[in-house]
Amino acid sequence: MHRQIYVNLPIADMARSRAFFEALGYAFNPQFSNEQGACLVLGENLYAMLLVHPFFQGFIDKRIADARESTEVLVCLSCDSREEVDQLVARAIAAGGRAPRPPQDHGFMYGHSFEDLDGHLWELVHMVDASQVNAGQAPQGAAV
Fold first, then answer.
1. For the chain: N or C, fewer Cβ within 10 A?
2. Is 136 helix (H, G, I), strand (E, B) or coil?
3. How far apart are CA 61 and CA 43, in angstroms?
4. Whole-structure pTM over 0.90, yes or no?
5. By C-alpha distance, which of 45, 57, 46, 76 is closest to 10?
6. Rounded distance, CA 22 to CA 107, Å?
């Protein structure tokens, strides 16, 4: 089975993209980063490779989709709490991103999303532990 994931995303400006994700509290692996690509560390064994357009184009035969005009991928990351979801979205907005929709509370799952500077959509979710729901200990707002 697979042990790591690398989501490759085209970006327009390396310096701006690095500053944006650093403002959200993420780090980059310098071993796999240069002026053409940067390895964004999302978690243990979870990475996004931010690749400037000319470099990204070298891996494909199709044109690069403009993520501000169409959606090529939804990146969804789990968070430890609703507060972490809200904090990351707030940091993304403060760093120049935008929240295209209001938060969604489905009881068992809370989510919110942001678009980065290149228009890529990042979904953030907090899932209520099923054992909490079954034991009637779910956080306020969660279905029991």
1. N
2. coil
3. 30
4. no
5. 57
6. 31
